[in-house]
Amino acid sequence: MQKGNIRVQTENIFPIIKKFLYSEHDIFIRELVSNAVDATQKIKTLSSIGEAKGDLGELRIDITLDATNKTLTISDRGVGMTEEEVDKYLNQVAFSGAEEFLEKYKGQNENNIIGHFGLGFYSSFMVSERVAVVTKSFKEGAAAVRWECDGSPEFSLTPAERAFRGTDIILHINEESKDFLNAYKVKETLEKFCKFLPVPIYFKDVNETVEAPKEGEALVEPKAINNTTPAWTKKPADLTKEDYENFYRELYPFSETPLFWIHLNVDYPFNLTGILYFPKIKQSHEIQKNKIQLYSNQVFVTDEVKDIVPEFLMLLHGVIDSPDIPLNVSRSYLQGDPNVKKINAHITKKVADKLDEIFRNERTEFEQKWESLGLFVKYGMMTDDKFLDKANSFFIMEDTQGKFYTKEEYISATAAQKNKDGKQVILYSTNPVQQDAYITQANAKGYVVVKMETLVDAAFINTVEMKWNDFIFTRVDADIADNLIDKTDAAESVLTNDEADTLKKLFEQPQDGLHITVEVKGLSADAPPVTATRPEQMRRMKDMAAVGGGMAAFYAQMPDEVTLTVNGNHSIFRSILSNTEAAQKEKLVRNLADLALLSQGLLTGKNLTQFISRSVEIMEN
């Protein structure tokens, strides 16, 4: 029997290990199972080159829970270790001393420390009061040994019995970590970290009662908890559409079938595999971020991938696997590395190329999926200039009649929509149903109105307007139809100046929460009697303020700016002006103004209540 001290120049390194790994202590399962996978892969390699003799037998990893004896055991059938290797790998922690260690890394993120030193095995002490390792090397004549340590620098190394090569790591779970004696907790953690490891993993709860099969029934064989050959590890040519969709359901069991996917497979200048899916999104509020999982050699690392995946593609779902991304052991956050930027740029290019390919080859299908795709494309155009340059060729706009236009096609179809500065005016609607009257008037003048009705569209318009120098966006209700492209001189009104002034004063009645400007113009006789419009720039500022904080909140509380354009050529005003009853005249005018405000969604609360009551009175008279 050998006894000794783990060779660390400090009284106890383990509290330091626990301190740095404590934040996510379930990570010990990932580390120990990953080590077991490594040991298994090594024996396969050694066998293939003839260094490991004989039949390898079934290569698997077994996780055994014994809550009664408070143990959790990770067993593999890999290379195992000799007594000398145990002494080398378990008893020589690569530190020169705790004080020097802490001084050297003072001021650095604590999460970046442990990963430099290969301390995965020692994460077991985060949850254990005692750890035992029983191992037998594949080497001929090697004897099994047992290493044991209670978290102090002292260890014992004794002969042991083990029938087959490989390693058992037996964790005697401490009181603070007794939740890892719960089978559900262990299975949940294995599902999180080990779902796609390349070696079959089996879980057994020794205290679980298993009913014997009834007469005539076959014994149900236990199933591995993991998929050892997930879709991203295969060649695209070997996968069918059904394979991709089935894998998506494996990742997200209750999700709709994705729109399409991109299979990443790069081996130079970095290694990157994975599958990114475009999910089906019917409403903007269904957007879900952080649905991409990062793996390293099929070991789950994190779903916080914002440094690898461009921000706008955080809306995608799927898996990325790269051994070239530097990771630490504890919280698994990405460290700064040039490969990360290269991978980020590559993913952006692959997504843009895929969208361009679908648009060119399957435009009808692309248009049918635009409701979901548009969110990704617009978000990307706002946040990534390189993507914007590529997206200009496949970005499309749907008009209120259901026809789609690229930017260039919109220019060709709307030659008359250029203002006096030569800029193309893109007329848009944020609510085609509510703004139908304005759209009808714009269409009557030959204008094309596109739909911009998602949550990202307000920000998209503000952003690309600055990047597309020859375009401006104008909402269809920003002015009367005659003035949407350029301010024009109104047609001559049939009203005298005095009559126009009288009408203007009748309409200039204060309205709670609104700042109203009234203008009387000579419009077409069949145009609406009163039109309420909200000046584009003022409305945009207020809309942005509504979603901002701080000083923006102040602007959000300011009254809405509204212009009431009174059509002096509408016949109804002859009747109103000739009415000798002042009260009735005021009611009629107020109702016309309220109808215009109602079309803008600006008639609410008591103003709406008064409008309804007044309408009833007018009809009764």
UniProtKB/TrEMBL annotation:
<dbReference type="InterPro" id="IPR020568">
    <property type="entry name" value="Ribosomal_Su5_D2-typ_SF"/>
</dbReference>
<dbReference type="InterPro" id="IPR001404">
    <property type="entry name" value="Hsp90_fam"/>
</dbReference>
<protein>
    <submittedName>
        <fullName>Molecular chaperone HtpG</fullName>
    </submittedName>
</protein>
<dbReference type="Pfam" id="PF13589">
    <property type="entry name" value="HATPase_c_3"/>
</dbReference>
<keyword id="KW-0067">ATP-binding</keyword>
<dbReference type="InterPro" id="IPR036890">
    <property type="entry name" value="HATPase_C_sf"/>
</dbReference>
<keyword id="KW-0143">Chaperone</keyword>
<comment type="similarity">
    <text>Belongs to the heat shock protein 90 family.</text>
</comment>
<keyword id="KW-0547">Nucleotide-binding</keyword>
<dbReference type="Pfam" id="PF00183">
    <property type="entry name" value="HSP90"/>
</dbReference>
<dbReference type="InterPro" id="IPR037196">
    <property type="entry name" value="HSP90_C"/>
</dbReference>
<dbReference type="InterPro" id="IPR020575">
    <property type="entry name" value="Hsp90_N"/>
</dbReference>
